[in-house]
Amino acid sequence: TFVDYDTQPREYELSVAQTVLRVHSRVADLYNTPHNQTEQQLRLTIEALRERQEHELVNNTDFGLLHNADFAQRIPTRTGPPTPDDLDELLTLVWKDPAFFLAHPTTIAAFGRECTKAGIYPTSVDLGGHQVPAWRGVPILPCNKIPVSDTRTSSILLMRTGEQAQGVIGLHQTGLPDEYQPGLNVRFMGISEQAIISYLVSAYYSAAVLVPDALAVLESVELGRES
Fold this sequence. Notes:
It contains five helices and twelve strands. By secondary structure, it is an alpha+beta fold. It has one domain (about 15-220). The radius of gyration is 22 Å and the shape is globular.
């Protein structure tokens, strides 16, 4: 018996999100108490980079989850709106240890309306100390990076996560020069003649679907008219 393997497996290049943080030296000198202004500006800058990273992990045409689901793992809704039957159908595609559904908040609201119409009341589960909606015990997490089209349609993702489970994993490089967080570094660029201190903030990331049945997508989910 021989294990089937790919002689030329796909290689993933890390994508990068970068920005330059500029802080006037006067601010750094005079206004660092009670809060370190440079640290606070850096925190906000990193949050903005992480938002861009999240958008890319969902939508990037090369490694984004919406574009990397196997064709056999993509299904349309039965009637248009997201119904309990549709989510059950997704669960048949990622049946082994599904971690969570991922949907736009508007899509989650539309699913709630369909459950109410059917007289079904989904339970919630505890996730990190917060109660989140769930279906069949699988959390339904909001993600506003999943696009909603002009015709008010969207998608719902279901995935298994983790390397040990052969699921969806995030990729990043550790041990970067001037590393501030895993996969993110902050490099001092100098002080200009106008006394502006500059820092280059870079985040490196990608994602991989280790096996096809780790990710499924419910497509053409109708959200109804916008009031």
